[in-house]
Amino acid sequence: MAGFPAEMLRLNGICPYFSMFPLDFPLAHLSQAGPGEWVLDPFCGRGTTNYAARLLGLPSVGVDRCRVAVAIAAAKMVQVTPEEVTALCARILQGGADPVDVPTGPFWDLCYHPDTLAEMCKVREALLRECVTAPQIALRAIMLGALHGPLQKNGAGYLSNQMPRTYATKPNSAINFWLKRGLKPPRVSLLEVVSRRAHRFFATIPPRTPGWIMEDDSRRLDEHVFPERFRWVVTSPPYMQMRNYVPDQWLRNWFLGGPPNVDYSYEGQIGQLRGDAFAAALAEVWRAVSRLCAPGARLVVRFGCIPSARYSGAEVLMRTLALADCGWAIREVRSAGPSTRGKRQAEQFGRAGTAVEEIDLVAQLEA
Ligand SMILES: C[S@@+](CC[C@H](N)C(=O)[O-])C[C@H]1O[C@@H](n2cnc3c(N)ncnc32)[C@H](O)[C@@H]1O
């Protein structure tokens, strides 16, 4: 990405998320922003728009209904050094009593070495008690990124037995997979993993800009919470006809205080809705967002539908803006082009072999 040292872009990859757009998408649009213009992403996911805003020195707010997303995105806003994060982790591991809440059963026995699991639970409990300072927020996101992934030869990559890094395998499939191949969980030093990741992700970060990330339903945003009117909204709503991906993040959800099993009860996810209900929900968001924006504000949306859907992504999105009927005038609609080597949101969704047609739309709030 032109103009930024590669090390400064690393923080954006601190933890994968199930549906993310590449950093160059928000960067390309926000590079046209004037100094001090506030940026909003009402479906912020892992905070790609917020990190692009920070790189460009712009203040921003991110909103998401999923606590995993919020925890990852929040780490992109903090100012912290690798040493501060590592020292916090060491203090947690050295101090206090043993963890009280260590999950048991065949999945946990096969996924984590018992000593690694005990360390993980100690850090989990400390961060569940308090996670407000920059080192705490950074450590939490580092833990989410390290929780599961492929086994590595040097043994210090991820904390788990063999697993994908983007999503957590469901317990029964994981158990079968490990037993069939005789795979044992590695003894990994949590402090080593955290220290290496802290240096990788936080050694070179851009200066902090004003703003925050909040866990909320974007249909119900309260305009009194925000100090300034937004000039930019750069976002990617959940794609229509895509199933709820929150259960795929069940281990990260557990780390953040969820149950130690797959949680299907997550509410408020717009992507679970179908047809008219989906369009009405998205229209509600565009209305809520318009109340937070200054006249002339730009709305930039990347959106997609699976090809078998009755309507194209462009048709669905334009319908939601027409339904919202609150002054968003469409200026441009174009194809997002062919996907590029796994970086595109479509490919994240497409791991089951489903290609997604994506479009980019730009609208402007009429005065
Ligand atoms: C396509 S993803 C956004 C990905 C993001 N652009 C990134 O790069 O990580 C859509 C997001 O919308 C969130 N979401 C779904 N329903 C929501 C709602 N009612 N309010 C706020 N966020 C919601 C999902 O949790 C998901 O993180």
Brief overview, please?
The chain has helices at 6-9, 24-30, 48-55, 67-75, 82-94, 106-111, 114-129, 134-146, 171-181, 190-202, 250-255, 275-290, 313-324, 345-349; strands at residues 39-41, 60-64, 211-215, 230-235, 293-305, 328-335, 357-365.
Instruction: Give helix and strand order, one letter per element, not per position.
Output: HHEHEHHHHHHHEEHHEHEHE
The CATH superfamily of the largest domain bears the name Vaccinia Virus protein VP39
> What is the SS-derived class?
alpha/beta
Give the proportion of residues in helices. Answer: 25-40%
Q: What report would you give on this structure?
A:
- With 367 residues, the chain is of the alpha/beta class.
- It has 2 domains: 6-78 and 209-365, Rossmann fold; 82-202, no CATH class.
- The protein has 14 helices and 7 strands.
- The structure holds S-adenosylmethionine.
- S-adenosylmethionine is lined by residues 17, 19-21, 43, 45-46, 48, 63-66, 69, 217-219, 236, 238, 268-271, 345.
List descriptors.
7 strands; 367 residues; Rossmann fold; 14 helices; 13% strand; globular; 2 domains; 7-stranded mixed sheet; single chain; alpha/beta; binds S-adenosylmethionine
What's the helix and strand layout?
Layout: H1 6-9, H2 24-30, E1 39-41, H3 48-55, E2 60-64, H4 67-75, H5 82-94, H6 106-111, H7 114-129, H8 134-146, H9 171-181, H10 190-202, E3 211-215, E4 230-235, H11 250-255, H12 275-290, E5 293-305, H13 313-324, E6 328-335, H14 345-349, E7 357-365
Parallel strand pairs: 1-2, 1-4, 2-3, 4-5
Antiparallel strand pairs: 5-7, 6-7
Helix pairs in contact: 2-3, 4-8, 5-8, 5-10, 8-10, 12-13
The protein binds S-adenosylmethionine (SAM).
